Amino acid sequence: MQFTDRLYKKAKPIWRKSHDHPFVQGIGHGTLDIEKFKFFMQQDYLYLIDYARLFALGSLKGTDLKTMSIFAKLLDSTLNVEMDLHRQYASRLGISEAELEATKAAPTTLAYSGYMLNVSQRGSLADLVAAVLPCTWSYYEIGTELSKIPGALENETYGEWVKMYASEEFGELADWLITLMNELAEGKTEAELTALEEIFLNTSRYEYMFWDMSYNLQMWPTDDEQ
Ligand SMILES: Cc1ncc(CN)c(N)n1
Fold it and tell me: Which end of the chain is more exposed for a tag (fewer CB within 10 A), N or C?
């Protein structure tokens, strides 16, 4: 059994909750309230800025040119393909690029990005990959699953989103990170593997919280005006 099989098995109940979340199902069935999607897009844009930074850090921590160049590809793809989808959606939804970048981070966005960056900055390349893997892998799984719902890919509002995350190109990025995770896990002690597993489970939990935050338009409970 590969290390990522073990991770997948452990995280499955959490991932299942994300798949079944009304936000995710609403995208697949085209029934999601557009205000919730707008909120998600803006928060996700902020999240992706830090997610891109993680790939830059991966390139820095990589010890061979192949690893460095694949992280560079992940960085480019995040900044110029995935975030472009957000920019296009924002323009369709009447949000300017300046507004997108000036979005105030919600507590879950801040906590999730902060956790990933903290683990990756003070840890090893294996810690970094364990932190980002649920993001890429679970989105590919969600995209693929939603793409099987009749009409999901053709939906006027959410079809492009489903297409992006179900695409072969996005799947290749997830596959590459899976392979790297298994390579980096080789020779590690059980205690080290358990620590990686905990990071993977934590970002899986944050993934669920991100859907839930977006569905509930959850900002700071302390501020009246957001
Ligand atoms: C919160 C979150 N997690 C993952 C992804 C996929 N890159 C994303 N866009 N947003």
Answer: N
